[in-house]
Amino acid sequence: MAEKTVQIRIKRQASPQEGPRWEEFEIPYRPGMNVIVALRDIAERPVTVEGKSTSIVSYDANCLEEICGACAMIINGRPRQACTALIDKLEQPITLEPLSKFPIVRDLQVNRQRLFEDLKKVKAWIPIDGTYDLGPGPRESPEVQQEAYPLSNCISCGNCLEVCPQYNDHTTFVGAAVISQVRLFNLHPTGRMNEGERLEALAAPGGIQDCSYAQNCVKICPKGIPLTESIAAMGRAVIKHTVKKALGK
Amino acid sequence: MATATAETRAASHSHSFFWRRLHSITGVLPLGAFLIEHFASNAAVLSRHPRQNYGEQVKFLNGLPFVLALEILCIYVPLAFHGLYGLWITKQSEPNALRFSWWGNWAYTWQRISGIIVLAFILWHTWTARFSGVSLPDHPFQSFAKMQAMMANNWIFAWFIIGITTVCYHFAYGLFLFVAKWGIAIGNTARRYWTYACWIIFLVLAYAGLASALVFRNHWIYPIR
Ligand code: SF4
Ligand code: FES
Known about the structure:
Chain A is of the alpha+beta class. Chain A has 8 helices and 7 strands, in the order E-E-H-E-E-E-E-E-H-H-H-H-H-H-H. The mean pLDDT of chain A is about 95.
């Protein structure tokens, strides 16, 4: 009996300047393998199906347990994390493409800087550093914990941006993940102290107003984050804050 | 992809928060409110004496105090803004419903397509009904005959059906979006129920609009004069 194999088609691009091309690989099947394992196997013997030896496929990956976000790519047409994409559950030939909303670096590797810059814009952190000990912060109620926990699962993978029709080159839209992070940090008892700054960042150009509520983000998020709920909640918070400020309160 | 610089990303102009929210609210008030009023007035033809009652409606509306100012401030100005800014927004979008065909994505895509159709329809409808042919403010009781004559043409009648249905969709889904974007219904359950409510609003409005339009085609009972 012939050995069981896995067919993979990969959209490759040697550099941002060069055009993309497709390469096809066939590698031996191993039980339980995922897309990252397959990419590693290809790296061990980078030879295409036609027997042509080629360069190693470039991709990002880190944690291998869907927690760092780095390995997002388009697998069989859908953006998702490669490390949790089990070969057994994928239709073959498996197609791998880089995320299309970020500038390409090489092959499956993209530059997700725009997302990180946008997280900085909204100050998606809790400022606790100072020149002296500020003492313990206020306590967080179990209700708030319940609301915040799912939001804290965001891995900044960018899948929600890939499917968003509003996240593109025409807009500076920050996207669902960033809006949801504002909700997370504004829920935190210490984070709340910078609530206004974050909401103002969401009313700035590229802010929450660019959302047209296609609701794709919530469908694709690998962490099941209630993104449409976050957008609605922040929609209310931003308008409230903006009106209050305009009225000088 | 991913080549534009922040400066060239035109949709994200300054004060876009204000303009986007204004765009959202003008669709509900005054435009949505006017749509309901317009359909309610037209429903006057769903009575035993449509010719007479329709004429009375047109006469009543044109007899309102400051009618011209009302017309300009509550209809033409918001309509021009909502339509033009809507086109601008549409230009910045990259619809992908064929690739990701979830219902919300289709609804998003249709909101844009219907917006363009509705804008074309309203421009045509305003021109033909209000600014050309028999002047309705001067001859309100000619209204019924004017619309009858127009809709006697099968193509025009089909265009009315398309216009009425798309405007109802655009308004009903716009109401859903309004409630979601302004954070009036935040929870998933609340938004789901509001979705159902919007579908009902769509059906009721479309029914009223289409039923009224059909009366103008009923030449057997109401011969064209
Ligand atoms: S919200 Fe979900 S899809 Fe978006 S970046 Fe975070 S984990 Fe990824
Ligand atoms: S490698 Fe970290 S999420 Fe896949």
